[in-house]
Amino acid sequence: MSKSRFVFDKFAKLIEQGLINYKDISDEIISILKSKRDEIVFKMKLASKEEVEILNKRISILEKKLQEKKKRKKTSKVKK
After folding, report:
1. Mean pLDDT for back-to-back runs of 10 residues, the chain (80 residues)
2. If DSSP codes are grouped into helix, strand and coil, which group holds residue 17?
3. Please, how many CA atoms are within 13 Å of residue 7, restricted to the half-sphere of its CB?
4. I want to staple 51 with a disulfide (CB 3.0 to 4.6 A). Which of 27, 29, 44, 47 is the partner?
5. Cβ(14)–Cβ(25) below 8 Å
6. Burial class, 61, CB count within 10 angstroms (exposed 0-12 / middle 13-18 / buried 19+)
7. Burial status of residue 39 (CB atoms within 10 A of its CB: 0-12, 13-18, 19 or more)
8. Rounded to an integer, what distance in angstroms lies between the CA atom of residue 59 and that of residue 66?
9. What's residue 48's pLDDT?
10. Could you tell me how many helices (H) and strands (E) the chain has, helices first?
11. What local confidence, expressed as pLDDT, does residue 11 receive?
């Protein structure tokens, strides 16, 4: 209810300020929605795309090292 009220209040402000031009209204609506999206993302503490890529690279490197250690362990058992 409060979220819909927020949107209606923003529309009322736009009309009161005399922004009759469609382009101005659409730009204002888009900026409001973007700011709300940014707030939600900030609250969720999501990582950026770059951070995710870096973490994926680190994980793949660690997996390779783990596989190498498993191979070494298997070969050392065969030699004995």
Report:
1. 78 71 77 85 78 90 92 70
2. coil
3. 8
4. 47
5. yes
6. exposed
7. exposed
8. 10
9. 77
10. 3, 0
11. 79
Q: What are the contacts of 41-45 at 24+ separation with CB within 8 A?
A: none
User: Which one, of 47, 67, 45, 44, lies nearest residue 55 by Cα?
Assistant: 47
Structure tokens that stand for 26 in this block: 């659409």
Find the radius of gyration of the CA atoms of the chain. 27
Place of tokens 């065969």: 78
pLDDT at residue 4, as a whole number: 77
**Cβ partners under 8 Å of residue 32, min gap 6:** 7, 10
Residue 39 is encoded by which pair of tokens? 């707030």
